[in-house]
Specification:
The structure holds 2 protein chains of 2 kinds. Chain A is α/β, with parallel strands linked by helices. Chain A contains 8 helices and 9 strands. The chains are: A alpha/beta, B mainly alpha. At the A-B interface, helix 3 of A face helix 2 and helix 6 of B.
Chain lengths: ~250, ~260
């Protein structure tokens, strides 16, 4: 089975009931206040009519302004958000790195958390023990691996999470703005590691604002603008398109 | 997605929910001196207090009445904590739900399992008490009392999951549920003896009350050395079927949309 992502006129709405204030207090307040013209909160149309194909071996960069739909797109591909219309077909196991500090137990040691996060990703304890040494070596945080996570700096947590999540191969890797964390030394290592993962004929979707990283890793770029795809093609042209759409002057 | 696929997903994530349950247990007793023994001491202490009062009111002997209350208390405590806790289970698990795709029912299964471990601990107090006060009750029928564990789990799991679907959307639910459970407690033979209901001509509250039948599964063997009746089991299975059907029906619509409400 080849790994691929196929989307046909996919739409996604955030249900407004999820964030509308519906308490007795707000109801009484709105009755008491004489102003009738309250702002009506409607469903957010987060992804508009997306169609695309992504095949094996492709490294795709997702570009767009804040709130353009990059993260929503990734979560939709991961199957976390249900689509409201269209067709979504994803073949292959998905590995995603969205929010790196999630799933850590602050009181447990780094070593224990390697196991826990592996379990969260659906792996077996046996498998996690087999890759533990490799993960510890990659994080390169020395004796801190046997300290509780709550003693870690933000950068160390990111290292650990990155090491675990990327030690486990997936057919489709979804990254949301995670490479920026860590010091220069680690960024270099992280980039090397992602390249290794992608080399194993896997799909990478990387959402980022870091054009240098995008240009060095990805060859295809997709530009999001207010929930729509306005460009899909070569990464250099994609960045140019993004700059144009957002009125950013380039020399 | 079929129910079978869904259950396969639950099974595939078994290491994860097992870990969640165990870490809940660890957190519960961390840094306390009595630790795990609190699960035994707490119901036992409360039982002593209550039976002192009630045995005077209803004129029954303390030794006989206490295990009645204790059996009612630990089972009902399990149901309320699992169901009310289940109502906010998805909200609590939001970081996981937003990051990985697992069947949502594993997050209520976590409460179901944690509660069963606590119940298991608490029931040792009951068994010891009964062995001391009613040694003549010890019989093969005690094996039937063990079936309370799977039956409780199968009642609590769909119930908690159903509440979790609704509770994620309507955050008032856990509060309202506390009231509902209190009402159910009041009309059921949990602390009050069955004779109180019979005398008041309230047979309906016993014979047509699943809670009565559920409690009989543990009370018949332990408190009178008898086997639970077929009717007791049928009422339990009926409750399981009804709750499961409701959870599946609501889940079919709500499962995918839960993430929007977190």
């Amino acid at each position: 089975m080849t790994n691929r992502i196929r989307l046909q006129s996919v739409n996604l709405h955030y249900a407004s009931v999820g964030f509308r204030e519906r308490s007795l207090k707000s109801m009484l307040l709105s009755l008491a206040s004489l102003t009738r013209e309250r702002e009506k909160i409607v469903d957010i149309h987060a992804l508009k009519n997306l169609s695309l194909n992504i095949g094996p071996g492709e490294r795709v960069g997702l570009i767009g302004h804040n709130g353009a739909g990059k993260s929503t797109f990734l979560k939709m591909v991961a199957g976390l958000y249900p689509i409201s219309s269209g067709k979504r077909a994803v073949e292959g196991t998905i590995r995603s790195l969205f929010d790196l500090s999630l799933g850590f137990e602050p009181d447990a040691t780094g070593r224990e958390n390697i196991l826990y996060r592996g379990l969260l990703l659906g792996l077996s304890p046996k498998f996690m023990r087999s890759i533990e040494d490799e993960v510890v070596a990659f994080t390169d945080i020395g004796e801190f691996i046997d300290y509780p996570i709550k003693t870690y700096s933000a950068g160390m947590q990111v290292r650990l999470a990155f090491a675990i999540s990327t030690a486990v191969g997936g057919d489709i890797l979804l990254l949301d703005e995670v490479i920026g964390a860590g010091d220069a030394n680690f960024i270099g290592k992280a980039r090397k590691r992602i390249l290794e993962l992608v080399e194993q004929a896997e799909i990478l979707l990387l959402a980022s604002h870091d054009f240098v990283t995008l240009q060095s890793i990805c060859e295809r770029g997709i530009v999001f603008h207010h929930g729509e795809i306005i460009f899909d093609g070569n990464i250099f042209d994609a960045i140019a398109s993004y700059n144009k759409a957002n009125g950013i002057a380039t020399e | 997605m079929s129910l079978l696929d869904y259950m396969k997903g639950v099974w595939a994530a078994r290491y994860f929910w097992w870990h969640l349950s165990m870490s809940d247990l660890r957190a519960r007793w961390r840094r306390s001196f009595f630790g795990v023994f609190w699960s035994i001491l707490q119901p036992l202490g409360l039982t002593l207090l209550l039976s002192l009062v009630f045995s005077n009111i209803f004129g029954s002997t303390l030794g006989a009445y206490a295990p009645y209350i204790l059996s009612g208390m630990i089972v009902w405590e399990y149901v309320t904590t699992t169901v009310i806790g289940g109502a906010s289970a998805f909200v609590q698990a939001a970081p996981y739900i937003k990051q990985t795709k697992h069947p949502l029912a594993i997050y209520t299964l976590r409460n179901v399992l944690t509660g069963l471990c606590v119940l298991g601990m608490a029931s040792t107090a009951l068994i010891i008490w009964v062995l001391v006060v009613f040694p003549q009750n010890l019989s093969w029928s005690w094996f039937a009392a063990l079936t309370i564990f799977p039956i409780l789990a199968m009642i609590a799991w769909p119930w908690a999951t159903l509440m979790a679907y609704i509770g994620t959307r309507f955050r008032d639910l856990p509060h309202a549920l506390g009231l509902v459970m209190q009402a159910m407690w009041f009309v059921s033979p949990i602390y009050f003896e069955t004779s109180v209901f019979r005398k008041g001509n309230l047979h309906v509250l016993l014979d047509f009350n699943p809670i009565y039948h559920l409690l009989q599964i543990i009370r018949a063997p332990l408190l009178s050395g008898e086997w639970p009746t077929a009717a007791n089991y049928l009422w339990c299975f009926g409750t399981i079927a009804a709750l499961s059907a409701a959870a599946v029906l609501v889940g079919r619509f709500a499962e995918r949309r839960v993430i929007f409400y977190l």
